[in-house]
Amino acid sequence: MLLNKGEILFRQGESGPLFHLRSGLLKIVRIHADGTPFLVNIITPDEMIPHHSLISPNAYFGTAVALVSSEVDVISSPEWYRQLEEDPVRCRDIALLLQDKLRMMQQRIDQLTQVTPAEKLLKLQAWFRHYIEPAALTDVLTQDEIGQLIGLRRETVNRLLRAKRSDE
C-alpha cells in the first residue's frame, strides 16, 4: 500500500491489522481527551507496528500519519498471531525487535536530558537527514512537533531555527 504525505494509515482507538513499513516515515500522534495532538513516535523503514500489538491484539494507541511518501505492507492479524502460536522462534524475534525499540527510546530520553536546546535540535535534524534528505526537518514536522520530540516549547524551536538561518 502506498501512502502520500499526510495520509492516515490508522486512527487512534480503531482496531485492525498490523503493518510493516517498507519505506518512508510515519508519525504516531496521540490525541488527548481535550483534542490536543501530541507526537509520540516516529516509525522508520522495516518497523512493524503497532508495537504494543505484536504479541497480542490491542486498539491502536495513536493515529499513524505519513510524513513522506511511504510504502506499507498490511499484515493480517489473525494470520500473524496464528504464526506466533505455531513458531516460538518468532516470539523471540518479536522480543528482540521490541528490545531494540526500547533501547532506541532510552537513548532518546538520554539525549533529551544531556544536551542544550540547540544541540537537541541539531541531533534531531541529523537523525532526520538520514531519512528525508534533501528535505528539511521543517518540511515534514511542525515546530510544535519538533518541540514535542525534543522536549522544547515551540517558541524555543522557532528561535533556534531563526538563529540557525541567520548563521548560514
Condensed summary:
With 168 residues, the protein is an alpha+beta fold.
Notes on the structure:
The radius of gyration is 17 Å and the shape is elongated. The model has no long low-confidence stretch (mean pLDDT 91). Helices cover 47% and strands 21% of the residues. It contains six helices and eight strands; from the N terminus they run ββββββββαααααα. It has a four-stranded antiparallel sheet. The chain is α+β, with helices and mostly antiparallel strands.
Label the overall shape: elongated
Low-pLDDT residue intervals, each spanning 5 or more residues: none
Q: What helical percentage do the residues reach? A: 40-55%
Q: The biggest beta sheet, please? A: 4 strands, antiparallel
Classify the secondary structure makeup into a structural class.
alpha+beta
Number of strands: 8
Radius of gyration: 17 Å
Number of helix segments?
6
β-strand amount: 15-25%
In N-to-C order, the SSE pattern is EEEEEEEEHHHHHH
Mean pLDDT: 91
- Could you tell me how far the N terminus lies from the C terminus, measured between alpha carbons in angstroms? 40 Å
Biggest sheet strand order reads 1-8-3-6
Secondary structure elements and their pairing?
Elements: E1 2-3, E2 8-10, E3 18-23, E4 26-31, E5 37-43, E6 48-49, E7 63-66, E8 70-75, H1 77-86, H2 88-114, H3 117-132, H4 137-140, H5 143-150, H6 154-167
Helix pairs in contact: 1-2, 5-6
